[in-house]
Amino acid sequence: MRKHGRPNPLCAACLRRYARPDGFEAVPHQTARTPFHGEKPMSDTTAPPAAAHGKAAAVFVCILAALAGLMFGLDIGVISGAQQFLQKDFGISDDTLGWIVSVMMLGAALGALVAGWLSSHLGRKRTMILGAVLFVGGSVLCGLAWTPEVLIVGRLVLGVAIGLASFTAPLYLAEVAPESIRGAMISLYQLMITIGILVAFLSDTAFSYSGNWRWMLGVIAIPGALFLLGVAFLPESPRWLMMKGREPEAEHVLQRLLGNRDAIAREIGEIREQLKTPQRGVHMFMQNANFRRSVGLGVLLQVMQQLTGMNVVMYYAPRIFQGMGYDTESQMWFTAIVGLVNVLATFIAIGLVDKLGRKPILYIGFVVMAIGLGVVGTMMKLGIHTHGQQFFTVGMLLVFIVGFAMSAGPLIWTLCSEIQPLKGRDFGIGCSTFTNWVANWLVGLSFLPLLNGIGQAETFWLYAAFNVVFIAFTFWLVPETKGVTLEQIERKLMAGQPLRRIGQ
Ligand code: BGC
Question: Which of 75, 68, 9, 6 lies closest to 38, judged by CA?
Fold first, then answer.
C-alpha cells in the first residue's frame, strides 16, 4: 500500500475512510481524527465483517450512486447533439439557442442553493425523490416541447432536478455507505459523470440519423425513472435521523445497512461525535477575514475551472466540428470521441494526483489546454481545407480535453474542499459549488454571441488566454495541499499566511 501523509481524495483506499458530502472529495473529521492512509485504524482490528444483507443494501446504494452520477453527466452531455436539429425545427436564433443550452445550469445553481435547506428539513430521501420526479418531468417536457419557451422551462426544471440530486445523492451516500465501500462509491460517482456525458453523446449520435431531437432529450427520462425507483426503496440517512433526534430509527436503518451490533455502535458513536461540531459558516464569513479568503479562493477556483472553456466543447462540440468543415455524421462521431477521451483522461488524474501533487498537474493542464485551444483557433483563422488539417485540428481539440480531464476537472473540486476550515466547510463548499453552476451558465450563454461577435478563432484564443492567465493564478494563489493535513491548512489560513502558502 502506498503511503502518504494525508488522505488523498482520488485514492480509493483513502476515500474508504473519509467521505465528503458532495462526493467530490473526502475529508477527515478533525474532532475525531481517523487514521490517514497507511496508518493502522485505531479500532478496526475489532471490526467484524459486514453481514450478507448489509452487503446487499450497500450494493443497492452503489447502484443509486451510479445513477445519480449518470444523470448529472447525461444532463451536461445531452444538449450538444440536439441543437442543430431543434434550431432547424423551431427556426430559432443563436441567442434563443444559447438560452436553451444554458438555462439548465441556472436551474442547477438554484437547485444546489435550496438543496442544503431541503435536505436538512425534508430529509435526504425525500429531497432525492423530488429531484428524480423533477428530472423525469423535465426530460419528458423537453421531449414534448411544442415551443422554444416550453423547452426553456423543461431545461430549467431539469437543472433544478440535477442541482437537488447532485447535492443530495452524494451527501446521502457519504452518510449511508459502509466504510469499506464508501471510497469506491465516491470514485464511481465521479467517473459516472464523465460516463454519463459519453452515453449522452452516443445516444445523440444514434438518434442523429433520424434527426429526432425529441427522442434525444426525452430518452434520459428512463435513467431518471430508474433513479426514482431506486430512491423509493432506500432507507433514510441515519445521520439525518440522528440530527433530528430520531435515534431508534437511525439504529434500525443501520441494522439494515451494517447488520452487526459492534459496527452499529461504532457508527452511532462517530455520528454523535461529528454532530458536536456545528456548522457556523455564515457567522464565520461575517466575522473572519481569513475565512473570507478561503471562500474567495474556492469561488475563484470554480470560475477558473469553467473559464478553461471545457463546457464550450461539452455543449457545442458538433457545432465546433461543423466549423471545421465536417458533415453531421462526422460531427456526431467526433463528439462521441470527445466524450470517450474525457472519461479515459480522468484516470490520468486519479493516477497522478498523489505522486505529482495538485499544482504541477494544474500547471501541466493549463499549458496543455492553452496550447490545444490556441492551435484550434489558429487553424480556424488560417482555414481548414484538407483532410490533414481537419484531423490535426480535431487532434488539438482532443489534446485540450485531455488537459482538462487530467487536471482542472477533478482537481478543482478536490482543492475546493481541502481549503475550507472545518466550521465553515459546508458554507464554503456550498459557495464554490454554486459558483461552478453560475459560471457554467455564463459560459454556456456567452459562447454563441462570442462566436458571432468576435469570431470563431478569436473565441478560442480568448479561452486559450484565460488558461495562460490561470498558470499565473495557480502560481500566486493556489496552495499545494498534497501531503498536508487539513488541520495544518486551517492553522496556516487562520494565521494569515498567504493563500499559496497554506499548504506545504
Ligand atoms: C465540471 C463540469 C464539466 C465536467 C466535464 C466537471 O468537473 O464541473 O462543468 O462539464 O467536469 O467532465
Answer: 6
Residue 309 CA, ligand 1 centroid: distance in Å: 10
The confidence band for 459, taking pLDDT boundaries of 50, 70 and 90, is: very high
Would you call 421 exposed, middle or buried from its count of C-beta atoms within 10 A (0-12, 13-18, 19+)? buried
Ligand 1 pocket mutation pick from 76, 197, 362 by most atoms within 8 angstroms of CB:
76
pTM of the complete model: 0.80
The residue with cell 442523429 is: 208
Buried b (16+ CB within 10 A) or exposed e, 250-287: bbebbbebbbbeebbebbbebbeeeeeeebebeebbee
Separation of 287 CA from ligand 1 center, angstroms? 33
- 436 touches ligand 1 (CB under 6 Å): yes
- pLDDT for residue 498: 96
Instruction: Count other Cβ atoms within 10 Å, centred on residue 490.
Output: 23
- The confidence score (pLDDT) of residue 469 equals 98
CA distances from 193 to 76, 361, 486 (A): 9, 21, 27
Ligand 1 centre distance from Cα of residue 166 (Å): 12
Per-residue pLDDT tens over the stretch 231-279: 888 888 888 898 888 988 988 888 877 777 888 888 888 888 777 777 7
Q: Is the CB of 314 under 6 A from ligand 1?
A: yes
Per-residue pLDDT tens over the stretch 447-456: 999 999 999 9
User: Rounded to whole angstroms, how far apart are CA atoms 438 and 159?
Assistant: 12
C-alpha radius of gyration, the chain, whole number: 23
Ligand 1 atom closest to the CA of 408, numbered from 1: 7
Give ∠ CA 247-121-126 in degrees, rounded to 5.
Answer: 85
Give the pLDDT of residue 182. 55
CA–CA gap between residue 342 and residue 195 (Å, rounded): 9
CA 39 to ligand 1 center in whole angstroms:
33
Helix/strand/coil for 148: helix
What integer pLDDT is reported at residue 408 of this predicted model? Answer: 92
Q: Residue 407: CB within 6 Å of ligand 1?
A: no
Least confident of 82-91, 258-267, 469-478: 258-267
